[in-house]
Every structure is written in C-alpha cells, then in structure tokens.
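Bug #77: duplicate submission created two jobs. Keeping one. Sequence:
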Amino acid sequence: MSTPDLLDTTAADAKAIFRAAVRRVQADRLLNSTDPDAWAPRPLDQYEGIRVVGLGKAAMAMMGTVEQVLGDAMTDGYAIVPEGYPEHLPASCPAPTMGTVVEGGHPLPTEAGVRGARRIMEQAEAAGADELLLVLVSGGGTALGTLPADGMALADLKRTYHLLLRSGVNIQQMNAVRKHLTQMGGGQLARAAAPADVGSLIVSDVVGNDMSVIASGPTVPDPTTYEDAMRVLYTRDLWTEVSGPVRTRLSTGARGRRPETPGPEADCFERTSNTLVGTNRTALVAAWEAAEARGYAVRQGAEGVEGEARSVGKAHVQAMLQAAPDSPTCWLWGGETTVTVTGDGKGGRNQEVALGAALAMEDASRPTVLLSGGTDGIDGPTDAAGAWATPMTTEKARAVDCDPKDHLRQNDAYPFFDAIDHLLRPGPTHTNVMDVHVGLVVPHGPDPSGQ
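Kept job's structure:
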C-alpha cells in the first residue's frame, strides 16, 4: 500500500472511531440505558403530571426519547436547541411529537432564545406540588436559555458573552459570570419550580462533570457569587469592556444589595434530583472499543484534557512519536481545550489542535494521524466538528499556497484544512460531551516522504 493510501486508510479508521464515540452518547443510547424511576425524586407514577423542558444541544433528541418512555404522563414539553438543529436530527433519535421545539442562538443568545427561556420559566412556575418538572440539560444550554436578569438587555449579555469567548477563560469562569446576569442558571430554574419536584437528566460537556457548571446548572446549587463573577472580568481585563448595566448588577450584588443565586441550603433542592446520564468518559469507552475492533492496541484513554489548543495538539504528537510502538496503536484523549484569539481568522479549538499537531508531525517517519473533533458536530463558528492531520498535511497545504504557521498565527485553521479536504463534517449530532482526540500510529508503513 502506498504512503498516501495508508494514511487515507488510517484517517478513515480515526473517523470511524470518532463516530463510534459520538453514537454512544446520543440521547436514545444514553436514556434507554437508565431506569426511568431514577429520573426524579419519586417514582414517575406518583406524579399527577410531568412537564418536560429542555435546553442544550441534546434537548430535542432527549425529549423525543423521553416522550416514548412517559407516554400520556407527559402533560407538556418545551425545548430550545441551536438554530438549524430541528432539520438535522439523526435518524437513530426519535423526533418529539408532543413537545414544542424552538431554536435559539449559540454561542451568542438571540431574541428567539430569550422567548424560549421565558416559556421554560413559565412552565416551571406553573408546576404544581404534585407535579414533576423534568429538565433535560446539555451543553450549550446557557446561551440557548438566556433570560436577562433585571436591568439587563440582550445586547449587554451578547457583548459580555462575546468578550468571554475570546478571552480564553474556562467554562467554570465563564458560567460564574453568566449565572449572575440571567434568570435561569445557578439553580434559579429549580427555585422557580418550587414546590414541585424537579428531576434533571444531564449530559456533561465540562471537564470534571461539575453539574453546577453544565449549562450553568439551572437545577443545581450554585457555589459561585457575584464577587466571583467580578473577579473573572477583572483578571481578564474585561471589567471596563463590559457594559455599564453589567458592572452595576455585579457590583451591587457583590455588596449584598441583591440576593445571591440559590446555594446548597435553599429549600428548593430538597425536592430536586440531578442525574448525570452521559459524560466524556462514556464516549472514550466507545472509542476504545471501536479502536480495538479495528486492530489497534489502545495505549491510553485520558480524560480532562485542557490547555491552549495548539499546544495540546503538539503534545499529543510528541507522546505518540516518542512511544515508538511496534504494532498499530491508538491514543485517546477527551476534554476541552481553549483558544486565546489573537488573529482574525476562522476556526475552532479542535481545528487548532489539529493544526498544532500537523506542524509537530512534519518530520514523522511513520504513518501517523491525529484527529480532533467536537462530539456536538460543531467547532467554533464553523460547519465542521474539527479536523485531522498526518505527516503530509503541511506539504499538501503548502502545495495550494497555505502556510501552516501563518494560518496558526491568525487562528485561521478552517480555510487551511478546507483547502486540503481534512475537515471533519458530521453535522449536528444532537449531543455534546466535549471533544474526543484520536491518535493513531501504524509503525511499519513506508516513510511518508516517499523515500
């Protein structure tokens, strides 16, 4: 087999392993493996009615699966998903027929999302003491479920969200700010539903699976404060960049002139259960199984990967090449990197991981592939989930006048990989458990240089 053919085959394996990881964490697979009576504080047949609300990238698929389980016990349903999602529901996931699905903005909120968030809050407030509010929570829920707090306009929040996204803060810091500018996050949805029972089914898109961070924890006690939110903006030199109403709300809250988001002592949590149904580890286990089925020895499956995307890609490649395996070998990583934006290009964190990897493996003497993809099917403001790199990637790119170092400087990975057809484009997957990085090395192939 020629070197290009071997690299193509290895890249195809990496893509198949990634697809297996995504399939394992789609809503029907996750929810059908759970006990429905564990979804709520009490067995489901003890409720007079069950109101279902959802927010996040998995909300539509989760609602469709939940409908099949609940049947007539479901009295109402409402879910918010990103724009374009209803047209791309995977065939394996049942479509909701009883609940209403609307589209909101992500990563920046929109007026449509605000209207949807208001409807969800109305459902919570209308729930009676003998009813259950079943909440379907997944990544993207903060932006999709944005309901501005008193004194906040949507424009204030959009600017703040935009600044945070470009600053390189992690999701914990970002959501500490967003919880204190909105009405749903930080346990506020559970508070609105009292005295009804609340059960949340949660798909994690954060490292460490802290449920108070996922979609800003609408049904989870909030450990953060107004002071924490202020600190994030100060340490990132954003305090003077956000609008006056944002500064006023946070500073008055920090001085005790506004009530904090509900903490662990709040009465509403006595009738609330939060169940983690899917995580990045779930996806990595599926990827491990798929790699072994394709003949690869899996060297590791590491969770919790964080850091600057380009540096992570370089470190992955160094680990793979230094190991010098004597049989086809797979490395798996999961987590969520960050990108500190300094250029004006187009791309996302997974594409930048792959571009960092491409530069690091230019001189590799054996067939090597590093694929980095978002399990939600979307990477930054692009139509790709990520990209993959091989030792021939930079050579192919330079042949079409794409300088890899220049594209990396400009945070411009999308056109770089698009030019050589190395973008991963599964479309919206209706799930989100962060990212999966697949590294493959085939030790005995010919030199990628063709020599």
